[in-house]
Amino acid sequence: MRSRITGKISRQFKICLAALVLAVFFFTPSVCRAGNEIYVAGMPDSWPFEFYDEKEGTYQGVLPELLEEAGEAAGIGVKYIKPSEKDRRLDLAGNIQADVVWTLGLREDEIKDAGLKKGRDLIIYEEDGKEKSISLAYTKSMETADIEKLEKAFQNIDTAKIQGAYAAYAAKGDSSAGKVNWYLWIILGLVIFSACILVIFPAFFLKKRHQMELMAYRDDVTGRDNLTSWKQKFSKYIVEENRNRYAVLFLYAGIDVVSHIYGYKEAENALRLISDTCEPLIKQEKEAFTRFNEFYYVFFVEYTGIEKLKERIRNMQESVADEFKKKEKKYFLELHTGIYRMTSVDEDPLKTIQFSEVAMEYARMHVQDYALYDEYVERETISGYAMEHEAIHGLMHQEFIMYLQPMVSLNSGKICGAEALVRWQNPNRGLLRPNEFLNVMKRKQLTGKMNIEIYRQGCQFLKQEAEKGNCLRLLFNFTVENIGDEQFANHLDAIAEQYKISRKQIIVQLNQMVEMSQSDIYVKTIKQLRKFGFDVYLAGLELDRVFFNYLYCGINGIKLRQEMISEIHKPEGKVVVRSVVELCRKLNLEVLCVGVESEEQEKFLKDLGCTMVSGFRYYYPVSREVFSELEEDKQAGS
Known about the structure:
Layout: H1 2-27, E1 37-41, E2 45-46, E3 50-53, E4 58-60, H2 62-74, E5 77-80, H3 89-94, E6 100-102, H4 108-113, E7 117-118, E8 123-127, E9 130-134, E10 136-138, H5 144-155, H6 159-172, H7 187-216, H8 227-237, E11 246-252, H9 255-262, H10 264-278, E12 288-292, E13 296-302, H11 306-326, E14 336-341, H12 349-365, E15 370-372, H13 375-396, E16 400-409, E17 415-426, E18 430-432, H14 438-443, H15 447-467, E19 473-477, H16 480-483, H17 488-498, E20 506-511, H18 514-517, H19 520-532, E21 535-539, H20 545-553, E22 557-560, H21 562-565, H22 571-586, E23 590-593, H23 599-608, E24 612-613, E25 622-623, H24 624-637
Parallel strand pairs: 1-5, 1-6, 14-15, 17-19, 19-20, 20-21, 21-22, 22-23, 23-24
Antiparallel strand pairs: 2-3, 3-4, 6-10, 7-10, 8-9, 11-13, 11-14, 12-13, 16-17, 16-24, 16-25, 17-18
Helix pairs in contact: 2-5, 6-7, 9-10, 10-11, 12-13, 17-19
Keywords: Membrane, Transmembrane, Transmembrane helix
Protein name: Phytochrome-like protein cph2
Pfam family, one: GGDEF
């Protein structure tokens, strides 16, 4: 009896197990990757792009063919998951039951929610007057190496071949699968369909091909000629007979600085505005211009005399500046143009750009509107390039060192702090002052890194002084490169924390810059610095709207420059300085007076109640070692 019951249970168990296996087999798509294979979730009915042919039992259409070809080129097998009646691409991809899907008919939010990664656009077509695109979307199961192989394989498929595949499917139709309307069996329908194939589709694809060719010669920011188009026009318009009548211009407008402060979107707006302004100033069919290396512009123009060419450049720069004023931009452009006059042997367009860029760099270095390329300009500019490489090397090897301009308390006469300055201990050129290298640092946008290096040295110095029992304050200079960085305040705070420095020992000095005062990043940075506990001083005082913006941000000190202090010997100067000091006192702003050189200046400032000064009357800038000796001597003397 027990044996019979056991046998019955065993048979029932086996039947249930078999049913479970069959259910898993039929209802769960298998996507275990064997070797170098990928599984694709397709659309059951999206002719002519992708559809399932029940008679053949395979997926057909433009997209499967392209994927098959790309897979063969990449050494990757392609297998389609058998479809259901509904489109289940997102379900299969979301459950990692497929490696790849086509994006046709999927919205961006659906692709994102499914955790898919889009590849490059492979087919671009027009629907209801709108341009649409199709690309592959990969699930997390897809290996990065396979993605790169597939995308590279697609790049090697000619665009015309893609369009041809599309046209071929459009011409064949899919009557056997029920994809073609029954009217195709009517003679009139056949005639209309044939007309579409013979006239409309070729015209459509020719139009799209023309659009793609235009895109290949259009700048993606300005919508005008890109460098490829510019070079083609250069070779077309400039021939041996007229080369001596052409010049290549290299325009710098400071858009790199705009991008750093206001973001790349505003920089793009500025680039488009420059293009719109320059377009009517160029002779069509003879001259051309284009955006170059992201933030610059290059032109080739005809000229009959150098003075007329210079006048034309001045007019062009004035037109650009005027347009920016009309648009009420928050910033000012820095316009410099390099000029290279072509010779009969100048055939390479890139060489002429290189020469004009050298002239532009010379114009920037010497703050000129324009400069002509010649041997002297090249020699001096190349020398500047050499120093640029030395500067990069110097930052990497700590050649930029901190010097200190001692600050004195007028109440005690003792050193109470210092302004951190910079010197370059160049192994080949010796000890260099800022006026000998700052232009180079600005051109290479290295001042921000240099300032942070000096700040780091300053915090290290403050820690060493604290270990000796000295509590000093250091003032550090920072520039646009620093303040425009959203992480600047956090960076300063982290370094101070590393050396266990009280934030009240650090004074962050800012220059009063009109364009910066309207930058949201700049305002946020100042407020964050004050929140961390840093003192923030404004260098100089200009009583205008900008000054109020700084006040609202929370600055708590003013540095009166040597230019103002030097006027104390005049009655008018005394009135101005007294008024400024009293104004600062009413606004609860600390005052640091620098450039004090005479007893008269010292006495006047002391009578006004100023407590912190610096200048040659007390000390010259010194190294860290000499500064420590000065402190010891002062303490010994007292």
